[in-house]
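haha ok so turns out i had the wrong file open the whole time. this is the CORRECT one, sorry everyone. sequence first:
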Amino acid sequence: MDDQGLQRSSNAMHAINIQMKGYTFTWERGRGKPQFVEEKLDRALASTSWKERFPDASVLTTQKKISRIAFRFENRWMEDKGFGKLVNDQWEITNSSATITERLRSLSTELTRWSRKHPKIDRKNIEELKDRLERMRSNTDQQSAVKAEEMKMELNQMMIKNDMYWK
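then structure:
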């Protein structure tokens, strides 16, 4: 997304910037070389209601390198029936005196574990289900019709989740 697209999106959501404190730059390349470059790439946004609830919140940037693999949230998780309960439960069981960073780290660890049990839906799965559905077309009995409807609903859900993954 370009800067104008980000600006339009954040304006549409009424998102506001959260103040960043600490080291100015968040990315570097070529340390110790003549072509050494540092840039500020990150930006933190929040809703106005969140900012009202946490008026003194800020983001602290550091030079510390993190060796962990970055956590990636997947939109498709939102369609899973158990996702909301998992997030709420995990948030509640985390020590209430934990910092927001510690709570988020705990949540991301649990979501990573959970996501391994909920594999991505790829085109192969969708095509296999379409093929099975096509083979059932010649069956006209009531039981086959019910099964075909169930498969259509499953196919629709798979396609929605697949589309959400790419958004």
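The CA atoms of residues 77 and 83 lie 6 Å apart.
again sry for the mixup
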